[in-house]
Amino acid sequence: MSDSLALTLAGETVWLHGDRALFYPGDSALLVADTHFGKGAFLRRRGLAVPGGESRADLDRLSILIEHFQPARLIVLGDFFHHRPSRGEPFLDAWPAWRARHALLTPEVVIGNHDRHAEGLDLDMIWHSHLDLGPFRLVHDPYPVSGRHVLGGHLHPAYRLHGGADSVRAPVFWLREGVTVLPAFGGLTGGWPIRPARGEKVVMALDGDLYPLP
Q1: Span 4-213: which CATH code?
Q2: The pTM is what?
Q3: Which residues form the signal peptide (predicted)?
Q4: DSSP 7-40
Q5: Within 10 A of 2 (CB to CB), how many other CB atoms are there?
Q6: pLDDT, tens digit, 9 for 90 and up, residues 147-170
Q7: Which residues of 149-183 are buried (b: 16+ CB within 10 A; e: fewer)?
C-alpha cells in the first residue's frame, strides 16, 4: 500500500498516484482524466440535492498534486467540463484565483465529448484533439493506436474487490495491452464496473492509496 507506484509503460517510467493521477517524468507532465468541473451545479439546476463545493475541492486536489510533482505541464484527458458553465457558477468564480496560483502552468485539455458544450469559452487553456508525448498517444476515448501506447479516460473504470462478507468498490487504473485507462478524477463522477481480461491488470485507488490487484 502506497500513494505512488512506478510502472514501466512502452519503455518509459510513469508514476501512478492514489489521488487518481499519472505523472510522466519524461515530459514533466501531470495527467488526470474526466474532471467534469461544474457537474454539481448542473445537477442542482435540475433539482437534485447535491452539496456544493465539489469544484473547489477538486481544484485543491489538483493543487496538491502540482505541489507534489512540480510538473511543467498539466494535461486533462478529456471532459474537463461536465457542461457549458453558466455565469456565476462556483467553478467560474474559483478558476481565476486557481490559475493565478499556478500562473506558470497552463492547463492543456484533450477534448472530450462533454467539452464540446464549452466551445468558445476562453479560460486560458490549450485544447488538443489528441496529443503525442514520447511513445504515448493522449486521447479521451481510449482506443488502441498502432505504434503508440494510449493513455486515455472516458470510461471511469471501477472495480469491486470481494473479501468474504465484505467488498469494496473503487476507481482503478486499467492496464491493457497498449492502452492505459485512467480513473475519473472528478469527485462527483461515477464509476463503470470493469472485468479485466486475462493478462490485464488493475491498480485500485482507494482513499489516496494504491492497491495493485493480481
Answers
A1: 3.60.21
A2: 0.92
A3: none
A4: EEETTEEEEEETTTEEEEGGGTEEEEB---BTHH
A5: 12
A6: 999 999 999 999 988 766 678 889
A7: bbbbbbbbbbbeeeeeeeeeebbbbbbbebbbbbb
